[in-house]
Input
Amino acid sequence: MLGSGNGSGSAAGTGGFPGITIRGGNYGNGGNSLHPTLTPRTQKSYSMTITSTASSGGGLSDFGIFQDEKVYTVYLDMRSSDEDTTPSWTLQYAPLQSQHSVADASGQPQEQPSAPYATLKQVPDLTPELAAACARKLIVVSGILTADGKLERLRVMKTPDPAVNTLITEALSNWAFQPSQLDGKPVALKILLGIRLVTH
Output
């Protein structure tokens, strides 16, 4: 594992691609509560980005979405204020078109895609019963983040209760992102989103 940034370790490895690279600060917000009716604020930077492969577990388990490619993991700030302790959501992504098949005019691989930033978020408003059933349990959703910054082809990969699936995908379909860019051009991403809905 290769690590860098505040509070992260470092160890010898065989290169950035087979292992994991961490750039920046600490994971998440350290909180454990979610206020479903609050609108999270806009995030303009990520304190940490993890670069890994699908099998090396950068942010979420391997659900078969990513293949032999670099995968990037960032943490979406879901708080509505500095005092809010709502935990971050995990966003794992890679260009929809494999970087192995994309090169510049000199034949060199393109640079790393820029991280996408959510400009509009909607959190599902759950009934108390459903919120209790999902409390502290991981929900994983796959999809495509288009070059226009919209989430499409959403599919729930892991859920604690099927009753929450439609509520989650409907809320996510209303999100908007500042799209990722590769070599200065917007690029579509395949994504995994790790969501934890915790009662307050």
About this structure: The chain has one domain: 2-32+43-99+111-196. The chain has two helices and twelve strands. Residues 165-172 form the longest helix (8 residues). The mean pLDDT is 76.
